[in-house]
Amino acid sequence: MKKKLEKTIENSTDVLQGFASILEEIKNLVSTLDIDTLLQKILSLSLAVTKSPSGSIALYNDKTETFRMRAAKGFSEKFLEIGEWKLRSGGMHEKILSGNEPYIVANTATEKSFSNPLAVKEGIKSIIVIPLTFEGKIIGMMYVDDFVERDFSDINLHLLSILSSFAAMAIDNALTHLNLKKSFSKLENANKELDRKVFEFKSLFNVANFVGSTLDLDNILQFILQSATHITKCPAGSIALYDHVENELAMQSSIGFSDNFLKEVKWKVREKGITKDILTSKEPLVVSDTNLDSRFNNPIALKENIQSMMAVPLIYQDEVVGIIYVDDFKCREFSRDEKNLFSVLSTYAAMVIKNAQLHKRTKQLAITDGLTGLYNHQFFQENLEAEITRTKRYNHYVSLLILDIDYFKKYNDTYGHVQGDNILKGLSQILNETTREIDIVARYGGEEFVIILPETEKKKALSIAERTRRSIEEFDFSIKGFPEGNRITVSIGGAVYPTNASSQVKLIERADAALYKSKDTGRNKVTFYDDIKDDE
Hints:
The chain is an alpha+beta fold. Helix content is 48%, strand content 21%. The protein is built from 16 helices and 17 strands. The strands form three sheets. The chain has a six-stranded antiparallel beta sheet with strand order 3-2-1-6-5-4, with helices on both faces. It has a six-stranded antiparallel beta sheet with strand order 9-8-7-12-11-10. The longest helix has 32 residues, at 336-367. It is elongated, with a radius of gyration of 32 Å.
């Protein structure tokens, strides 16, 4: 499982690096005014995004109402001799343009609408056709092809949609300069639109650069949220992550709200609630006035005086990762461009958040015991060494407790290893509940556990050890057939650095010696190394 998670993280990292590289290339298109050079650049980026061997771009002439192939890669020389063709009523191209959405054919042999004999002769087996439109005007068509049957991923489609939007604008701008047919006012407006698009892509590029350099989940959430509020000009926002086991969302990051906003903000996904509507919506869900929407009834959100919001689900490979919200404290509408860019950001955010979660999970697996969920032996040794080093520097104490379950072999032999595992799990829960946040609880091996108590001398350590021993003795493990009310006991040994030992190895040895003293003198008791010395 660990190798599978690491492989998923490696694949996601490759996607992140490719995304940042593509955005950098897109920025360079703005200054390209030679139409043929521009078309070749756009086509090269499209093929790089989809890892496809071939593709082409056809431009539309609104005077003659015809298309003409202007750029192609991966085909024979005759392919560009297709010439002109008209927009046929009821044909494939008309359907694509009327829906203004990508047209995907995973297998051209089974698609009746795919009937171009020259394309068939070239051996095209799968294809994406992207309409190029700008300000409601047809610019042309972009084709991405493959010579094998294949499905194109959602990431491919999102990146191609971004590229096609920008490509149409850049092509229109290049044709304007080439033909000198548009007025200065029109050109100025187009440049403003280009500036806006550059701003949008720069925002995405900045996100890609940042998240590509870190796998810290909290930092990633905060940066994505800052980008979301920036591009939508909202003063506040939040990200909630989804728990599939509990079917609930929990707020993980926020901007622009009170300090209490993140405290205990969890909620179930109700069938008729606004969260359900957000998760099932294919585009950002907008509430322009929360006072007029009966679904918006979260008391914490109402207390924050949210007047309008936009939310979109974070979905990666059909898995719900969470929801990202942007909010305003006044009623407002959101523009189409804001919705589109917010949607693109959410797709990217879902991928990088999932990647960070997988990395965090992998790290957790490396330092925890699979059965009990406590830290493992290696983590214990590394942190004990670190605590001793810190103790030397600041002239403190560190105490070590070693616990052993009394007669555990007898329990295993009598009730079986499954019930024995239940004892280990229950004991781990008690240890977590009876120790402090600064303490480190680990499984040492078998039925032995260890607790590192930083900045703790014997008196306090003894108090914690006794409290732990009593809690275990009083806990009902509820295993059928257990004698004496289903109770177990533990023997505990303790030692203090530097009082009882001058090194890490000696500290463990002397806590272990104290443990065996507890076992030899009746079990179910706490013994410290000082007690052994006093007996000698």
